[in-house]
Amino acid sequence: MQRRTLLRLLLAFGMSTVLAVSSAHDGSATYWRDAWRGWHFYEDPSPDEKPATPPAPAASAAPPQPAEKAKAARAPELEDFERLQKTLEEYRNVAIMRPTEANVRRYMELEAKVVNQASTFADVARRVAWATPELDPTLQGRPVNAKALEVFEETQRTDRSRTVAQLGKDHVLFFFYRSDCPYCHAFAPVLEAFQGRHGIQVVAISIDGGPMPGFPSARRDNGIATALQVSQVPAVFLAQPFSGQITPIGFGILSEAQLLERIAIVSSPEGVAMLPSATRRLALP
Question: CB under 8 Å to 203, separation ≥6 — which residues?
Fold first, then answer.
């Protein structure tokens, strides 16, 4: 009897010790319940257990952005200009909404200052242009001086005439007309003189089969006018017979200067690139 009591006490004491140790070990009884695994085994951590991450370092002050740097390096004149612009607009709006003498006078006085400042800028810019040829607009492109314009146009006419003469080696001008068209009769002498002066052949094509003074070898239309959609006469086309390339020059009466200008432009690579759809290719006889 005493032996049984002692055994019960030992068992009770042993179980309480095991429970106490188990509760002290992170609140988990896995190991103590699985004593059959022995001492040498590896247990994967549960999915809920995540490694502790080190605290993030304190964020340092952000470096100044490029816009802030640009704003800091801004010229003071820009600030003054914006302030003046805003003030002028405000004065004007006030004067419009309440056009009293004082409001209108205040706006006009400030506007006069702005105009004077702009006039001074224009004077300085003009002096700079006079002293710097590449910045002088009167020296760029078409001159404005009458004598310079005369020289410019003569030089341009000579260059374009040389271009047309070079084209005349393998190009011709198609002149579409009707024998009953008064504009065609007025334009024919211009083309006849143009042919003799610049060395490019003019091929006259009669849509109605009638003659044209100055062009005794005029051809009767064989359908080419329809192929080129010639709906108005007189009409002039630049043609290259061996390639069949045809480009419209213009409709109606054109002057010699206009003919030179248009032929030089449409025959240049830049002119072709501007309007590639205008050039067609036809099988020419």
Answer: 172, 173, 174, 175, 219, 239
